Amino acid sequence: MKFKKIKGTRDILPEETEKFLAAEKILRKTMAKYGYREIRTPIFEESALFIKGTGATTDIVNKEMYSFVDMGGRNLSLRPEGTPSVVRAYLENNLYKKRLFQKFFYYGSMFRQENPQSGRLREFRQFGIESIGSISAQSDVETILLGLEILKNIGLKNVELHLNSTGCEKCIPSYKKALGDFLKPKLELLCSNCQRRFETNILRILDCKREACRKELKNAPKCIDYLCSECKTHFQKVKNLLEKVDVSFTLNPYLVRGLDYYTKTVYEFISPVLGAQDAVGGGGRYDRMIESFGGPPIPAIGFACGMERILLAMEKEGTVKEADKTLDCYIVTMDEQTDEEGFLLLGKLRKAGIRCEKDFMSRSLKAQMKDANRLGTRFVIIIGEEEMEKKELTWKRMSDGLQKRIPFSVENILQEIRS
Ligand code: AMP
Q: What CATH number is associated with residue 406?
């Protein structure tokens, strides 16, 4: 029997892992610059955390969670997103008592049982941030600036910012009513999912990708026309600040996100080269979540970006950089005696910080040279009988084939590598 990976999961092979690592290094560096510190929360939590946090009416909770009952009868789920866990950790560890305003980032796998397609997986990696404690429009804009800078530094060339405001508990009911009045006569023309959403969470209809539903949504009322004065002022401040820091954006009055908790500002980072799944990231304010978890009324804003989708967009843009050649030296040997000498040299070179390899399969000279080429080494060291007798080694530079004898010593090898 041959085992196969689970549908919607991927093996990230070493070459691709190197691309992830390069992106992760950049993201950590940029996060540090903005004062966001890494938080690592468990990969599984009580299911109730996501039902309450992400929202009982969302597709994520209703249809996509990997939930199970453990041996102790506890109802657990693999995390489908990061925000509820960060908020739980913030409250459970009383972090707000130390300093109300705190900024976190996380990076890791998320799990959703979606229909796999290009850019949509069942296990995918997200990095995200949570800026907790401020209602200022400056914190909204800081998260956007940070997201855009990370995406640019990772290497994505074209990113568009789509922006909207989804109001608050004061103004959203009147918008929901207006949307309901508009959609009610068209209800039978909507897909069965949207008909269900009409009852459970009407805003989510705006996010339906089906052509038939999109057609019916033309000229639907816009949330920004129903904002209360507080939400209107906040949104105006966000837009003004974005203009002042030279960030262009597209107002998308129908942008709602897949999670229930958003209030006021919502946004998405869009890559125009991607097809149907064109969002590389998205986020917004969630001013009510902390209080709904039993904490004080503390506002917050955050975003999450999908690493696989960013790398896919970079591939389509042709901007993925090839990883550095990872090998400095490859040691080629001739027989049992030189082979052991080669092994001892391998250890000494690695101790000196050199990335080197040798053959462990007693292969022919030709096969070893082929292997060295395949690994893309910069230099080859050949140790033959004659070299051993003269306490020398043959040094070959792969870029131009230059070959010479040098004394058999680590110092000489280091000198050659650095010259
Ligand atoms: P969300 O947590 O739904 O707000 O999504 C934030 C970002 O995570 C999206 O813009 C995508 O880049 C990424 N993402 C969400 N779901 C998936 C998925 N199933 N597969 C791959 N990436 C995803």
A: 3.40.50.800
